[in-house]
Amino acid sequence: MWCYEKRLMLPINIKNKNPRLAKMILTQFGGYASELGAALRYLTMRYTMPTDEGKALLTDIGTEELAHIEMINTIVLQLTEGATVEELKAMGVESNYVEHGKNMFPVDSNGVPFSAKLFAVSGDPIVDLTENLAAEEKARIVYERLMDLTNDPDVLAPLSFLREREVIHYQRFGELLNKYNKMKNERLI
Amino acid sequence: MWCYEKRLMLPINIKNKNPRLAKMILTQFGGYASELGAALRYLTMRYTMPTDEGKALLTDIGTEELAHIEMINTIVLQLTEGATVEELKAMGVESNYVEHGKNMFPVDSNGVPFSAKLFAVSGDPIVDLTENLAAEEKARIVYERLMDLTNDPDVLAPLSFLREREVIHYQRFGELLNKYNKMKNERLI
Amino acid sequence: MWCYEKRLMLPINIKNKNPRLAKMILTQFGGYASELGAALRYLTMRYTMPTDEGKALLTDIGTEELAHIEMINTIVLQLTEGATVEELKAMGVESNYVEHGKNMFPVDSNGVPFSAKLFAVSGDPIVDLTENLAAEEKARIVYERLMDLTNDPDVLAPLSFLREREVIHYQRFGELLNKYNKMKNERLI
Amino acid sequence: MWCYEKRLMLPINIKNKNPRLAKMILTQFGGYASELGAALRYLTMRYTMPTDEGKALLTDIGTEELAHIEMINTIVLQLTEGATVEELKAMGVESNYVEHGKNMFPVDSNGVPFSAKLFAVSGDPIVDLTENLAAEEKARIVYERLMDLTNDPDVLAPLSFLREREVIHYQRFGELLNKYNKMKNERLI
Amino acid sequence: MWCYEKRLMLPINIKNKNPRLAKMILTQFGGYASELGAALRYLTMRYTMPTDEGKALLTDIGTEELAHIEMINTIVLQLTEGATVEELKAMGVESNYVEHGKNMFPVDSNGVPFSAKLFAVSGDPIVDLTENLAAEEKARIVYERLMDLTNDPDVLAPLSFLREREVIHYQRFGELLNKYNKMKNERLI
Amino acid sequence: MWCYEKRLMLPINIKNKNPRLAKMILTQFGGYASELGAALRYLTMRYTMPTDEGKALLTDIGTEELAHIEMINTIVLQLTEGATVEELKAMGVESNYVEHGKNMFPVDSNGVPFSAKLFAVSGDPIVDLTENLAAEEKARIVYERLMDLTNDPDVLAPLSFLREREVIHYQRFGELLNKYNKMKNERLI
User: Which of C59, D31, E70, F53 is the most exposed, having the fewest neighbouring CB atoms within 10 Å of its CB?
Assistant: First the structure.
């Protein structure tokens, strides 16, 4: 079970609104490389990791991804805060207002809702860790693309932080995969 | 952000395998009344609750639903544990083995993957709390149906607990809705 | 069975084209709070309402929602009528022309097609009427948002009428729910 | 708008339960050749039919398909009526009970929910009538397959009736298509 | 099995970028009338064609549709080539960059991913050929709409070629359907 | 463009029908690790591979996956051939007959249709090759699971062949990834 700690993993303080950018960033809530997909992937996969270390790593990273969702949501909220309906219309993003008012939803940058089809759990530890390497790489590149869309330092800071975390997760999953491949060769798993 | 506490919200100890029942119970992971849908619904909605009390209630219940997912997953795992491929075939549920091995996935009882289309976030507190009342009621009835499928006390105990939690959440959301309706009438929100 | 009466529930006469607004209004044909979802929800649910009164209410409102679909479609058609391809491109809504020409489709305001995942039928009258209260509230708020997007009185009139109908349906479903809750307490259903 | 007439298009009186067959027949509520898809297809398409005769034909057949939905639903209900949970489990169809109790949902024979992706509206009368010929043929063959699954005359009678209606609709759409092709050649549409 | 021949079915040489048009043309990769849907439809259907001639025709046209996918992809790439992020933003199409960088994906013109729900395979040759007539007509009209969006001759040439191929496929499927209808009347199939 | 060679990549000759197994094997046509997903993934990704060698490898393997689809389809057909409706009903797999007659469709082992959401194309060569490693691993494990379901040597032979091909593709993609990583470090790509 989880307990909630009332603070963001990294403080976010965006001063300039940009609802169009917010619409793009939403993809990290509900798109193919989203934090939601990552959290669900790892927290589900952990059950068939063959060692306690593996289960713990998946649980830890999955739990961290929940905190990333919260960061993404906060970025989106702050980028939209105070935008008038007229401003949303001028930017061609009034559909979010129609559907979710001042709030948001797990969708990609075109507004397509999140689906569990966007990630996979095979139940095999070697396969699943390889899936995770791909997942972290996909998240990394999408963060890089989002960073290309803006030069607002208040937005770049959390995006850069989140990008960096994906790189670290990639390394951690890689280490575990090496360990499991070795164990598999030795018929220990 | 969240921290993980390494224990289930309620201990689960199922001694008799029943993978067919497991397939049905999976719907509370990925179906229309699933704990996953509930967690996402509340943790997203909270941003437009107009009071700190509302934000906190949504966060608390959303966080609890994450623990419910974990309970559902554990029930499914224990009901499947040790089942041979021949047993799965005899019960007509070998598709889960094909797709996810000994693990699982957020699907409904027919194997249809979870979609964010299964829940709604309107961004209006009155509307969203009404949505939550319906969500809790839907979860309650699905738990009652699942309980109709078995008389194994090891399974009935956690299902009954989860059902009971939905009833309590329904009451809590109802109280907040009343408060917000009153505030709305007084033009405070 | 149904017979068709060749008139709109409310006459609609829009003089100024606005295909961008039309794209937004389409969500009431195919989005999460759509008239199509409402019609299907009620016309399916009615089978397990425990009294003739309940079956009749669900049938009546479900049938009315079919008329609302027709109104939404007419609004969308009139808002698009006579728009040239160049005008559609200038407004960023040429995708509807590509996909459906001068006609339309049940999609949300981002163009995502309607899915039955957007509504639920539990088969329990108490649960289903609670679902309906939420459905009517969601439809109401989306109409209010759509009304925020325009000050064209020709569009506001039918949107306001449709919004008002949702409020009335909410009341009717609430009355039936109270009746059923009372009957349930008296073990009559 | 529509008015409801409280009778089935054809009386249905099924005496022997068969919930497994019911699950298959559900596909005509929510599958690729479903009456729901047909109703939505025709009632949406009608707006861009170039003549009053065309608009009327699409409206009439679309309205009739609504009555067919009601027939399908009634068949499914009667085939399931009185089945115990144990009977449903023995037949491998307890998932419907879990999800919808004694009621039903627009799904295909595997339980996949209806989606508007299952039909198309192009906005061109020639194209759309060709789409309709295909739709009617698909519905016909699915009815023939369903009839292959049973020899219960109480079920065969309405299935046969519905199959026959698709043949007639096919002819009517074909006649209109010929007329429109002729008009198109003469540059009248 | 297939072998790849390293050339396009028709050379494509687009000199002027137009990423907004590219987004629209993507629908012929992943939309309801897409080349991908066509290829899958024909290459799957062929197994239940009752004659070698029928199997061969379906295989040939299905294989050609694979070449059409390649043409569509090339058009989209050339229309996007060299566009800066600023240009994409100015045109309101930066979402493709966010999701797929300089590459693309099978989606419709709103960015909704391809689904097999967009086509049907009934397993009956008469029905399936009727489905194909509708498919070719739908593809034809979408090409005509896309041609309405541009007057760039470099884009019009391949779109016009692809449109023309659909007309020819329509004729070929029609001839086979006539043959099969005749054979069916003579009880040969 | 492609040319069709009228032979299977590996001859398949299954003598004993087993439609239940066929339903499971269908997941390699339309499931998350399907040959269809693989073909689409590689044939789309190739456009942003930075070298001719990379483009060629992706094209080759993508083209081979098309041949694998054909092998899967043939296995499914032969496993179903001659099965009566009564046999299908006895095995609980009559839904395929209802939907597709003697033919098939790209679905997973639960009958859920293929969606492009099941694979990803990021447009970055490093990321995409990592995605491919995961894809090949997922396909490998699903083939191993399918092989666990049967001891029919006529079925095991092609499944084993297909599994082996995934291992080889994994190696080829890994080699290219290493090369690209090296080039990236040297700032050549």
Answer: F53
